[in-house]
Amino acid sequence: MQNQRRLPPEPLNGVDIPGLLATIRLVADQPELAQFQFRTCNEWVHGTHSRSAFVGFAGAGRELKHERFYFADTDHPAVLCGKGSAPTPVEWILHGLAGCLMAGIANDAAARGIRLTKVKCSVSGDIDLRGIFGAPCAIRNGFSDITVTFDISGEATGEMLEALVANSRARSAVFDILTAGVPISVNVRAQH
Predict the structure, then answer these.
(1) CB-based contacts of 121: which residues, under 8 Å, 6+ apart?
(2) How big is the chain by its Cα radius of gyration, in Å?
(3) Domain range spanning residue 111?
(4) Continuous segment of H or E residues that includes residue 171
(5) pTM
(6) Is residue 5 part of a domain?
(7) pLDDT tens-digit profile of 71-118?
């Protein structure tokens, strides 16, 4: 037999398992490579409509660029004095939470050798707009409650599938940001 190269296992759930495991080992050995900074630049378009651009980020010890430029618009619906040309900013937060939890489930399932057949989640957030509009009573400006509901199936027991969701929740950056909070600095360069 000729020397044959072993091909990496086929991706499971679309996840490059050898790449995932190599990344985990690499950052365990070189923690400085785990330091990332994600960025966006947002520009006002008109009314309540604005557009963010996602060009690049820093990580793994260097500056990196996305494969292409990504843009995300945000607006308010007409009932909230906007044109409804894009999701609201708070809907993007729900999208970010759903996407982060989904990625965690896919990665964890692949690392554990669990083939997923369906994963779907619905995310809802309750908000009382009187806080945003400056009501005299103490009403929070943001969500008072967020609910995430998963429908998940795969080649594993119910307990194993539930553990995937629990592990994703425990490791989700967005879940952490929303539940533990993060200091935010707001700087202004005003020109006239």
Answers:
(1) 98, 101, 102, 148, 149, 150, 151
(2) 21
(3) 88-180
(4) helix 158-171
(5) 0.88
(6) no
(7) 999 999 999 999 999 999 999 999 999 999 999 999 999 999 999 999
Q: Where are the alpha helices (DSSP H) in the chain?
A: 17-29, 89-111, 158-171, 173-180
CATH number of 163's domain: 3.30.300.20
- 141: DSSP letter: S
Number of domains in the chain: 1
Residue 71, in any domain of the structure: no
Decide if 70 contacts 36 (C-beta within 8 A): no
Ramachandran region, residue 191 (left: φ > 0; alpha: ψ -120 to 50; beta: rest): beta
Give domain status of residue 78, yes or no.
no
Task: Produce one character per residue of 145-173: b if its CB has 16 or more CB atoms within 10 Å, e if not.
Answer: ebebebebebebeeeebebbbebbbeebe
Q: Tell whether 122 is covered by a domain.
A: yes
∠ CA(37), CA(19), CA(92), 5° rounding?
A: 40
134 three-state secondary structure: coil
